[in-house]
Design goal:
- There is one protein chain.
- The chain has 207 residues and is mainly alpha-helical.
- It has eleven helices and three strands, in the order ααααααααααβββα.
- It has a three-stranded mixed β-sheet.
- The protein is globular, with a radius of gyration of 17 Å.
Length: 207
């Protein structure tokens, strides 16, 4: 698969999805704890809008914490830009060469796919990411990446319904490949999206 083309297509598709959201949906929570759709959309375009010097300045302001920096910038930029502008940042930069540090072009694809799912799954929108994009990301999963994203998949065998793919050993947990990708990126999913005795371990707690 041409991953650069897949990244560009993913960004255009997500921009179109954002264009169709209502004002209430823009303010709704996502699978990224503490972030609304607005903050996630702002974060997705940070790499296009921030130069290296600006990024380093923001990192210094955050006392060297990448998490604090991205959270602060997402909140600031979400407040500074309209919904239309946030969608346009993705569309207008569909071919931008930004990549997460040390993650390569596959990391850029993962960034866009997972954050797009953070939005669509939380809103209950049945967007299906093309399975070839999901396959590329699943094949890049390693114990190191699982640890980085804080995914707790010990003692679990993940089994995709729509791909010939599995990972791990233990109690089976089945679901769509894109939902299992979210699990591997440390997300909790709405109840009912996964099947297996341990499904509640990976579900958002209902209030």
């Amino acid at each position: 698969m041409d991953i650069k083309s897949a990244v560009a297509a993913e960004r255009r598709e997500l921009a179109a999805l954002l264009d169709d959201l209502s004002p209430a949906q823009w303010e709704a929570p996502t699978l990224c704890a503490g972030w609304r759709v607005r903050e996630v959309a702002a974060h997705m375009s940070l790499g296009f809008r921030y130069s290296l010097p600006k990024t380093l300045t923001e990192l210094v302001k955050a006392r060297g914490s990448l998490h604090r920096m991205t959270d602060r910038c997402a909140r600031k930029d979400a407040a500074a830009h309209s919904a239309g502008q946030l969608a346009a940042f993705l569309r207008d930069n569909a071919g931008h060469p930004w990549q997460p540090p040390m993650a390569g072009i596959e990391g850029a694809l993962g960034h866009d796919v997972v954050h797009g799912l953070d939005i669509s799954v939380a809103l209950g929108l049945e967007r299906r990411v093309p399975v070839d994009r999901v396959r590329v990301l699943l094949e890049k999963v390693t114990p190191r990446s699982i640890k980085f994203f804080g995914a707790d998949v010990g003692g679990v065998e993940l089994r995709a319904d729509d791909l010939d793919w599995s990972y791990g050993t233990g109690t089976p947990l089945a679901g769509a490949a894109q939902d299992l990708l979210l699990v591997l990126y440390g997300r909790k999913l709405p109840p009912g999206r996964l099947r297996g005795a341990l499904q509640s371990r990976f579900a958002v707690r209902e209030v």
